[in-house]
From TrEMBL:
Protein name as it appears in the record: Phage tail protein
Pfam families: Phage_T4_gp19
InterPro entries in alphabetical order: CHP02241, Phage_T4_Gp19
Organism this protein belongs to: Pseudarthrobacter quantipunctorum
Domain of life: Bacteria
PANTHER family: CONSERVED HYPOTHETICAL PHAGE TAIL PROTEIN
Amino acid sequence: MLEDVDTAVSVRYTLALDHADLGTFATCEGLGCEVVIESREEGGNNAFIWQLPTRLKYPNITLTRPLGKDTEKIAKWFAGIATGYTRCTGIIEVMTSNGRKIAGWELYDVVPVRWKGPSLNPDQPKVIMESLEIAHHGFVSKMGG
C-alpha cells in the first residue's frame, strides 16, 4: 500500500514564540541556511583552490498574511522592545487546510526585525496585507505531525 503524500498545496504557517502565539500566516519566505566558504590557494598547487567551510549564515524570514485580529499580538511584541528585549525560541509550523501539521522548525534566538503594515490606497482595492520579518541564529527541523 502506498503511503499518503501531502504535497502542501493549500497550507498555512503558524508562528509561536516562548511567550506568545503570533497566529497564522499565508506565506513564509527565507527559511534556509548557507555555508560561508573561504577560499585558500596553496603554494605549488595549481590544480585547484581549497574551499573551506567557515560558518553557517541564516537569512531573515518574512511571513505575510491578511490584516486581522492577530495583528495586535505583533504590535505588543514590538512595543515590548522599548523596555528591553530577550531573545526567544520560535516555532514555525506548516499546517494543511484541515489543521494537520506537516512540517515545522524550531528557531533559536529569534529577534524581530520589521513589521510592515498595509498600503491603504482606495484606487487599488485588494486584500489588506501585513508582513513580519524576523532574524534568528539557527534552527532544527521538527517534521511531521
